[in-house]
Each structure stands twice: as C-alpha cells, then as structure tokens.
Amino acid sequence: MQLSSRITGLLGGGSDGWGVFLRARQMIEQGTQVTELTIGEHDIRTAAPILQDMHRAALAGHTGYAAIPGTTGLRDAVAARLQERTGVPTTRDNVLITPGGQSALFAAHMATCNPGDTALYIDPYYATYPGTIRGVSALPHAIAARAEDAFQPRADVIAAAAKQTNAASLLVNSPNNPTGVVYSRKTLEGIAQVCRDHDMWLISDEVYDTQVWEGAHLSPRALDGMAEHTLVVGSMSKSHAMTGSRCGWIVGPVDAIEHLTNLATHTTYGVPGYIQDAALFALNQGTGFETEIAAPFQRRRLLAQDILARQNAVSLVPAQGAMYLMLDVRSTGMSGEDFAYALLEKHHIAVMPGESFGTAAAGHIRVAMTIEDTRFAQALATVCDFAESLAA
C-alpha cells in the first residue's frame, strides 16, 4: 500500500534538522552525560498552583468533551489579553483554542492556503514551518533575512517574492526563534504594507511575546488595516511553562474563526476542559507571573553577554527576545552543523546548528538558555573556548 505524497513529502526530501539533538539523546541513553542546550524547554516545571487547579478541575468532572472553540472563560481571557496588547477590539468570537501553537500554525495555513498555493515564511525559521506548509498541500517559499541586516526581514524582498509567486500567506515570528531578534516597528509596517498590497494573509507566531529583553513586542494585528489580514498564533507553552499541556490559540476575524472551528471539529475535537481551566487560572495570575517565568532567560542573557564580551571567536546576533542565543561561529571555518557535532563529541555539549533553521543562519549555532545559571555559564564559556581553539 502506498502512503500519500502529502505525508511522505513533509520534509521535502531533506533533513528535519534534528540530527544533533537525536545524537545527543542517543549518547544520554548510552550513559554519557550531555549538557543539552537544544530545545526550548524551561528548566522549571509547570508551577504547582497551575497543576493543582488542573487537578481540581479534573476531579470536579471537567473531563468530558469541552466546547470545540474553547471554553467561554478561556476565550474571553485570551480575547482580553490580545485586546489589551494590541488595542484592537477582540471578543471570544475572534478566538479558537487549539492543542498548542503547532496545531494553530497548521490550522492557520489550512485556513489561508488552497492546495498548490505558495506560502511564504522567513528564513531563519522554526524547524517545523516548511513541513507544516507542505502538510496542507501548499508550497513553502523561504525568504532570507540576512545577518548583515541583523536578521530583520526586508519588505522589498518579501514584496518581490509575493509578486513572483502570487503567495496566499506570509508566516512571521517575533520575538524570533531561532535568532532572538525582535522585529522593529519599521520592519512590521513594511511587512503589513506588503500584505495589504498583495491581499495576502499574515500568520503571526507570537508565542514568545512575554520574552522581550530589548525594545517592545508589536503584534502586526495592531497596525492599520491588519486586523482583517492577520491570524495571531499564541500559546501557554513559553509564557507559563506549560509546554506539555498543549494549549494554544488562534485570534483572527470572526468568519475565519468560524471556519477554523469547523476544522477543529473534524480534526482535534478541541482541548480537554481541565487543561483549559488550568490555562485560565494561569492567565489570571497576571503579567507578574509571566515576568517571573521569563526572568531566568533574561538573567542568562546578561551572563552570556558578559562571557561573549571576553573573546573574539564567537559573535552574538542581537539577543532581543526569546529563550535562545544565535551565535556566529564562522571564524572557525566550520559550518554550524560541523561545529555542533564536533562540540558534542569533544565536550558533550549539545546545541542546534543554524542550518537546522534554514540557509540564512549557516555558520551559526542556536543555544537555548534552558539550564541552571552556573551550568549555563560554564557551558557557554566552553563553547567560546572551543571556537577560539578552532579559529586559532
């Protein structure tokens, strides 16, 4: 029996970018101690009060089928959160609760792309983006954001691609994974103008919106005329350390949310009610709690800046947000992938190659700031020393 080309072609015939990560996990299984700086997983677990509320909700009986678009309380809370942060009037009718941000990304492309349509996205990108687009039978088209532009996408390059391909959608992510760059107002206004000019949907992945170290997060939904052009993807995973709970959302125009609710009825059938109750409890803890969850990454960023300032072999892409550092290791003469494998084998430190996130980050590595401060500082110092030895 033959499987569909839709599923067998998800990776486009190439690597999924997880080779170093899988090698590190294999070494750990074999008994080797590895310092993992790979995936965006908090080194703290979900806070006990959130788990206690989840337990309470489950024991209270909220274990049956929940409303498909999401519970009224959670949708209201997400709508209020987005309205406060964007200034755009938002109600529960603009909100669909999804099983995490990844599910939301898939659904958003299902809503905006017909089979064979071109969907644009920015390179460097989170590793699942092109496969997500292929999964809805659309054609992924990467647009490079260049290191010399501090990885801020250029509107003229996006406009040329939109015109050439007659693209249906553009996917952006700010604060950005993997680079840590926060898109400027100028960048986002240029992107918005391209979307308006080419009648193109903008899918805005904003799962790191609480992790901003320099500047401010601006949702493109807040820009003139963009509320009807934009689907915002959000999640409890990064902001509230609830990665395993799988609770996210899409915020967009009412008619789009109605159709996306139909899609959810035929695919995920919603999110468990007790998880939604816990997510509502977590959101109700306010921005102070979100700041507390983000604080370790802000602290480690400062540690990293101090360590990197003492050497010349590794340079830091402006680390303005998110839980990652993008480091330029081209002075070693190695690709990011070769450097990452060599670092793993020699020093048992696992990082993600820049090439895992596209071609624009070649010669870079992504370091997740996701281990305790002292260990993180020691690991980063070793990365720098290793790079210096290679560069010499």
Automatic annotation (TrEMBL):
Q: Does the keyword Transport apply?
A: no
Q: Give the residues annotated as coiled coil.
A: none
User: Any keyword Transferase?
Assistant: yes
Example GO molecular function: pyridoxal phosphate binding
Q: What is its EC number?
A: 2.6.1.1
Instruction: Provide the cofactor list for this protein.
Output: pyridoxal 5'-phosphate
Reaction(s) catalysed by this chain, per the record, are: L-aspartate + 2-oxoglutarate = oxaloacetate + L-glutamate
Location of the Aminotransferase class I/classII large domain: 36-379
Q: Which UniProt keywords apply?
A: Aminotransferase, Pyridoxal phosphate, Transferase
Biological processes per GO annotation: amino acid metabolic process
Superkingdom to which the source organism belongs: Bacteria
Which PANTHER family does this chain map to? Answer: ASPARTATE AMINOTRANSFERASE
* Name of the protein described by the UniProt record: aspartate transaminase
State the organism of origin: Sulfitobacter pontiacus
Which lineage do the record's taxonomy fields give for this organism?
A: Bacteria, Pseudomonadati, Pseudomonadota, Alphaproteobacteria, Rhodobacterales
